[in-house]
Amino acid sequence: MLKRLSIPLAMIVAMLLTFGTPAARAQDTEEARIKQALQVKFPKMTVDTVTRMPFGGLFEVIMGGEVVYTDAKTELLLAGTLYDTRTMPARNLTQETTQRVAAKLMAASHDTAIKMVRGNGKRVLYTFEDPNCGYCRELYKELGKMTDITVYTFLVPILSPDSTEKSRAIWCARDRAKAWDQVMIKGNVSEPSKPCDAPLAKNTEISQRLGLRGTPAIFTASGQQLGGFIPAQQIENALSKK
Hints:
The protein is an alpha+beta fold. The chain is built from eight helices and eleven strands. The chain is 40% helix and 20% strand.
């Protein structure tokens, strides 16, 4: 008689984790096929991810930083807000994904932002600002009223060539945070600096992927956009809900 094959449960689990179940592999293949098909149809855009939705035969697509939806044959493309009304209040699924993508993008880009810490720095904010932006100076005053925050400021010079020059000077300064303070208070950079590669193009790309059209723009660590210029108390209220 043939001996009965005995495979330990731990080994089976390890095999499933390594190779996945047939259903999971089939889903991965389908998502990869859809991604490739969309990339062919939209060659000038980057198709980042394709994920099957748990209902409606829809696939969630992140393309060029935007959340859209398609069918299995990629015959239809829907750009809009998708709500899940199976729960009340209805969940804004598009907003949830948009915020998750934004949070991941900004968290991975700390090295292109000026970091300023106040107090214990436990709470995190991201801002996109132009050194010649009047509302950015007003926001600077409001942030000065807050404590226990870490602010990552992405320099996005959009107003004038002078904005670009100031942004370069700030980024290349010996103390970037101090140089930013000087510009926000006095309008110029006196902090010593030397030529360097400023990530202004990268920051502009990030702002475009987030759909920004102006400065300032404020985001929480979860990717929620709080708007442009808003008072400190309004920011505090948003952070307290996290």
